[in-house]
Design goal:
elongated; Rossmann fold; single chain; 2 domains; seven-stranded parallel β-sheet; Dihydrodipicolinate Reductase, domain 2; 267 residues; alpha/beta
Length: 267
């Protein structure tokens, strides 16, 4: 039985993790965290998530919560996640991270922390999306440079980062398969007289609308045909269940940096 700490327990993802965690028979909720001064502090995490009392109060005391071998699950913002990961590494805990929007320097720091602790980080915890990452590599290799690659993503109006971490993950998978440097070939939206599309650019477009949980489409277009792969998330529970599956995996993993591809046996 692995002990789980949910950070951002009163948020959209954190509350769903608290709600469905009892489905995982090998995991148990032992602590719930929120930012200092959050109005949910002191309240029962289960009551906040709408599933009734679970006798785990929401706290801001991460240092007390993140003890050895406990598994942190966090979907929040980079600054808070990094602060928690430093504690994870120092105190011998473990982590499953769904936070997106890290800078290259922050990602480098996380890689360093993973030398001391088992950390699983993924821009998307959905099993379907992670299968898509694998399939996209195969599609890109088979289609090659004759097909234009365009990626579009749609999320709810509250999402702070753009493009989504999932869209970037898809772009990275395609770029790697085609031997391209995404930093040089990515085009984030077009406006005005942008000129004719270059053969090797990878277009990435972001839309924000209403309460869309998440939609991603990768289009491979040639003269005469277009092949598309689309994933639509209809509930945040998809991501929560993937995160719980990852928590079971990371609970016994040695120190290192892992992805959902490792969790699913695809890497």
């Amino acid at each position: 039985m692995a002990d789980v700490v949910v950070a951002g327990a009163a948020g959209r993802m954190g509350s769903r993790l608290v709600a469905i965690l009892p489905e995982a028979k090998d995991l148990r909720l032992v602590a719930a965290l929120e930012a200092p001064g959050h109005p949910a502090q002191g309240r029962d995490a289960g009551e906040v998530s709408g599933v009734g009392r679970v006798d785990v109060p929401i706290s801001a005391d991460a240092e007390t919560a993140l003890t050895r071998d406990r598994v942190l699950i966090e979907f929040s913002v980079p600054a808070a996640t990094l602060a928690h990961l430093r504690l994870v590494a120092r105190q011998g805990a473990r982590a499953v991270i769904g936070t997106t929007g890290f800078t290259p320097a922050e990602r480098e720091e996380i890689a360093g922390l993973a030398k001391q602790a088992a950390i699983m980080i993924s821009p998307n915890m959905s099993v379907g999306v992670n299968v898509a990452f694998r399939v996209l590599r195969d599609m890109a290799k088979m289609l090659g440079d004759d097909y234009d690659v365009e990626i579009s993503e749609v999320h709810h109006r509250f999402k702070k980062d753009a493009p989504s971490g999932t869209a970037l993950g898809m772009a990275e998978a395609v770029a790697e398969a085609l031997g391209r440097d995404l930093q040089k070939t990515a085009v984030y939206g077009r406006q005005g007289l942008a000129g004719e599309r270059t053969r090797k650019e990878i277009g990435i477009m972001s839309l924000r609308s209403g309460d869309v949980v998440g939609e991603h489409t990768v289009s491979f277009g040639a003269l005469g045909e277009r092949l598309e792969l689309t994933h639509r998330a209809q509930s945040r529970d998809t991501f929560a269940r993937g995160a719980l599956r990852a928590a079971g995996f990371i609970s016994s993993a040695p120190p290192g940096l892992y992805s959902m591809q490792n969790v699913l046996g695809l890497a």
